[in-house]
Amino acid sequence: MAATPEPTTMAGPNTTTSSIPTHPIAVPTHGAGGSFTILAATVVPSQDPLTVMNLIRDIDGWPRWNTFCPHGKITSRNEKVQAHPGEESWLKIGDQVKFDVHMSGDGLVSGRKRSREQEVEVTVMEEIVGGSGEGTIGPEVWRSEFQREEARRGRKGWRVAWKGVGWSYWQMHSERVMEFYEDGEGGTEYLCWETFGGVLGPIVRRTVGGQLVDRFGDYASDVRGFFESPSQ
Predict the structure, then answer these.
(1) Residue spans with biased composition (Polar residues) (predicted)?
(2) For the chain, how long is the longest CA-to-CA vector?
């Protein structure tokens, strides 16, 4: 696999970044290639990676913080993976969920209507041991795309991913990966990217690419902001 240059917009301790990298980033189901990627990053202080990931897993909690996709409904359960008591609204691998998308980022504004619905299937949910990127994506992809293995070595974390459903592969395919790493200071480094492919990929980039960059940045900021809120 050809090396992908390291993104130059990784978040610092007090920033959130969002951009379209020069080259598409590989994803678990569809691998390398695709039309384009949206990449966002932030640091969530004073929270461990599992806590941050579970905020995103709990779809009933989305209306408390998620301005991009504030409402979701699990449409198909993976019955092979049992939910723990009190976690019935938490996403598990193999679940399918349909959620509202607010492309203007106004999902928490009363009376605003969604732009569209999106249905996805959870494809990955795993612990990252040692922080080397081991798991579904594979360490060779992690090294080639972010070239940060030495910085991450020894840090633990979690990974969750979901892919879009409802389109033929040749028309449109997409998958979002979110990773949560110990930042070494008691907080969590959050990385999120979604890669789009298919014949509609270039059209999506041309028509709403800028909005997606903004919304993915909002999403990262919303995650951070939830934990920084005095009520938490």
Answers:
(1) 11-21
(2) 48
User: Residue 140 half-sphere exposure, CB side, CA atoms within 13 Å?
Assistant: 4
Which fold, 35-228? Answer: Alpha-D-Glucose-1,6-Bisphosphate; Chain A, domain 4 (3.30.530)
Comparing C-alpha atoms, which of 185, 226, 220, 223 is closest to residue 39? Answer: 220
Q: Residue 14's Cα: distance from chain center in Å?
A: 19
Domain segments of the chain: what residues? Answer: 35-228
How far apart, in whole angstroms, are the C-alpha atoms of residue 184 and residue 8?
21
pLDDT in tens, 1-54: 333 334 434 565 668 999 999 999 999 999 999 999 999 999 999 999 999 999
CA distances (Å), origin 152, targets 14, 23, 180, 182? 19, 22, 11, 9
125: left (phi over 0), alpha (psi -120 to 50) or beta: beta
Assigned token pair, 99: 């959620």
Burial readout 178-214 (b: 16 or more C-beta within 10 A, e: otherwise) = bbbbbbeeebbbbbbbbbbbbebbeebbeeebeebbb
Q: What is the percent of the chain where pLDDT is above 70?
A: 83
> For 80-137, what is each residue's pLDDT tens digit?
888 888 899 999 999 999 999 999 999 999 999 999 999 999 999 999 886 444 544 4
Whole-angstrom distance, CA of residue 208 vs CA of residue 38: 11
